[in-house]
Amino acid sequence: MVDFAIDYDVLHAAKKELHSLADRTGPKFRDKAFDGLGDYGANNDEVFGDFGLSSAFSTLYYRSKGPLEKAEKDLRKLGDIFSAVADAFFNMDAQIADGCGFRGSDVGYDDWREKYDAWLKHDEWQKKKNLWDQHEQHGDSCVPGDKNAPEYCGATDPGPEPKDPGKPPTSHTIETPDGTVKTELTLDDDKNVKTETTTITTSNGKTYETVTTFRDKTGDSYTTVTTYADGSKATADVVIKRDGEGNMTDGSKMTVTDDKGKKTEYVPDGKKGWKEA
Fold first, then answer.
1. Tens-digit pLDDT profile for residues 40-77
2. Could you tell me which residues come within 8 angstroms of residue 199 by beta carbon, excluding any fewer than 6 positions away?
3. Count of structural domains, the chain
4. Helix axes of 109-120 and 122-138: crossing angle, nearest 10 degrees
5. Per-residue pLDDT at 209 exceeds 80
6. Are 106 and 97 in contact (CB under 8 A)?
7. How many angstroms separate the CA atoms of 31 and 37, rounded?
């Protein structure tokens, strides 16, 4: 059950309405005619028809001028705060969503790649299948421990015949009432992923984009450029070293550079991922 949720569109709509209110009230208050009526030095008796009413209006004008001018600025500032909060949570959620599709799993590439690699080894499969067929026909003649037994005596079922999986999937789009998530891949001549671009867009047009460029076919050496909702960018350069079980080991590192050029180094933190060096 969700205990806390952020609706980005509502926050951005709040910003729009607050700025609109500031746009409507500010210019009206600074209107020359309105400003002139509030001037104590002006002869407004003819306009109001009464000195007391004219004096009361001038008093009201000068007492409200400061607070209203401040209110216009504060309305804009509050709108900007709503927008900043929306962008911050959007960026965080977008990072999570983007991470779920890393290296094309959400476009179906990983499944396709497994089938493609199996298809490339079709000749090897056929050889194993022939031996298995012989084993099925003549297995009763095989004697355990016989060093001179036919090769088919040690055969095992190679499983179903691998098929050509066709063209690799390179794009996928998820559409919801709140926005879209689009992932696109580019492949090299050997069908390995060269780049992966994920763009997350809200219904009001806010975007978060990551472009990852892989330097090897393992996916353990890559650079990711992230463009956040406010237009700022960060670049992460990653090199991962693994042990025999596939776990990240010492020697792995990640360097993140923000749009101001500040670099932050990260090192492995066990199974938790990364920690600042």
1. 444 555 555 555 555 565 555 555 555 656 666 666 66
2. 180, 181, 182, 207, 208, 209
3. 3
4. 60
5. yes
6. no
7. 10
- What is the distance between the alpha carbons of residues 223 and 212, in angstroms, rounded to a whole number? 6
Residue 25 belongs to a domain: yes
Residue range 191-203, pLDDT digits in tens? 999 999 988 887 7
Residue with tokens 């492949």: 187
Does 243 fall in a domain? yes
Contact between 241 and 232 (Cβ < 8 Å): no
What is the Cα–Cα distance from 70 to 176, expressed in whole angstroms? 40
Amino acid, single-letter form, for residue 228: Y
**Other C-beta atoms within 10 Å of 224: how many?**
20
Query: What secondary structure does DSSP assign to 91-124, as a single string?
Result: HHHHHHHHHHTGGGGGGTHHHHHHHHHHHHTHHH
Q: Which of 68, 91, 114 marks a domain boundary?
A: 91
Q: Within a domain: residue 101?
A: no
Buried-exposed string 99-109: b where 16+ CB fall within 10 A, e elsewhere: eebbbbebbeb
pLDDT at 4: 36
Residue 102 included in any domain: no
In sign, the C-alpha dihedral spanning 41, 45, 47, 53 is positive
> What is the extent of the structural domain holding 185?
170-276
Q: Tens of pLDDT along 131-154?
A: 999 999 998 888 888 888 999 999
In 3D, which of 100, 89, 103, 104 has the Cα closest to residue 208?
A: 89
Tell me how far apart the alpha carbons of residues 89 and 110 are, in angstroms, rounded to a whole number: 29
